[in-house]
Amino acid sequence: MKVSCFKEQGGTLQLEERARPVPGPGELLLRVHACGICHGDVSLRYGAFPFARFPIVPGHEIAGVVEQIGEGVEGFRLGDHVGLSVLFNSCGQCGACKAGAENLCPTWTWTGMMVDGGYAEYVIAKAAYVAPLPPGLAFSHAAPLMCAGVTVYAGLRLARCRPGDRVAVIALGGLGHLGVLYARALGARVAVVSSTKSKEREALELGAERFIHMNSGEAASALQRWEGGADIILATAPNVESINAALAGLAPEGRAVVLGVGPGKIEVDPVALVMGQRQLMGSPAGSRRELRETLELAAKHSIRPRIETYPLERAAEAFAAVESGKFAGRIVLVNEA
Length: 337
Known about the structure:
Elements: E1 2-6, E2 13-17, E3 27-37, H1 39-45, E4 61-69, E5 81-84, E6 87-89, H2 95-98, E7 109-110, E8 122-126, E9 130-132, H3 139-142, H4 148-158, E10 166-170, H5 176-185, E11 189-194, H6 200-206, E12 210-213, H7 219-224, E13 230-235, H8 240-246, E14 250-258, H9 270-275, E15 279-282, H10 288-301, E16 307-311, H11 315-324, E17 330-334
Parallel strand pairs: 10-11, 10-13, 11-12, 13-14, 14-15, 16-17
Antiparallel strand pairs: 1-2, 3-4, 3-8, 3-17, 4-5, 5-9, 6-7
Helix pairs in contact: 4-5, 4-10
């Protein structure tokens, strides 16, 4: 089978041939039809994750079919359409796992970082961590939901997003456009806060009722004029400057959820935090239950990420496109059946 892998940290993607793996007990062999390229894969390349293991086949936004079933696996049939996220495995015994928050397990295993991922024709998965794909959801559209989709959905769920809430989505990139779609699907009203003025039309077409230009220097005050502020700020941009610029735009009892991670420090006014009973929180990816809910919501509300596809053989070219940041949606590697 073909794979595209990093031989070492800081290296470039190398296309090579390998033997097709065989699933062990409790495992499935998936034929990969689509695998999204996440910004986390870029961070992986440059050493942001000290637990990463090289050489590695990256890719944790995987959609495909069950090709082979390992011993002891029940509930799956050959040909089932399924997906695999960054959560490859967890201990199952800690408090987080028992509470259904496996993404907070201190000894999790990450797909495409600690075990080989989806930049390949086939990938091994733990059956217990594989999610069924709803009918009608194409592989290429399902793949980005395995990380980008579940990340924004889990963040909104953590912030207790309710119908009628005012949700301010910071940035309209690979995470942000899905943040708008999922917030709308949950019945929220949406404003987009962006440093790119040309994104206004796109924001309104996605369903946002307001667009706030970050570079005006008045993001927080503009949010406060939105009926007293945002109930939720969903910070999808990987920089702290945008969070700092918008944080004072939270309404009383508002919640700011940080999804995008970048260098620097988030600055919080403790008086505003305390007197307004506001909250600042982080949210990493999502649990198995949240992944299933993410997919179900996408099917119910026709949520489809903006994608651009490349064949696996052009993985290095596709990866460079993600690094450049020129495409604001999600880039997906595809294998023809």
